[in-house]
Amino acid sequence: MNVTQLSPTFRVSPQITTDDVAQAKEQGIGVIVCNRPDGESADQIPAADIRRACEAASIKFVELPMNGPNYSPEQVSTLKSLIDDGNNILAYCRSGNRSSILYNATQESN
Questions:
Q1: Which CATH architecture has domain 4-108?
Q2: Helical pair 18-26 and 47-56, crossing angle rounded to 10 deg
């Protein structure tokens, strides 16, 4: 898993696998956020599969799919609440870029 740490409690990654969920748990991740809409590519792992792996690992799973760099105020608010609650978060999309954009939007809304 190729992870970039943006803050002490927030990391981003390209698309994760169900096996990566167990690794995230070992690293102290309590919430995984999916910023990738299903169906972007044929080889993409469906969010439902990642959700099941998260449930098995007792990790909260939140879907906030973004189309390109566009996000809604509700997505910013939801992610900001997760961050403000002190969760250790791993957010992913195809490359990690959308997850970084949404994280930066939460920091601008302070």
A1: Alpha-Beta Complex (3.90)
A2: 40
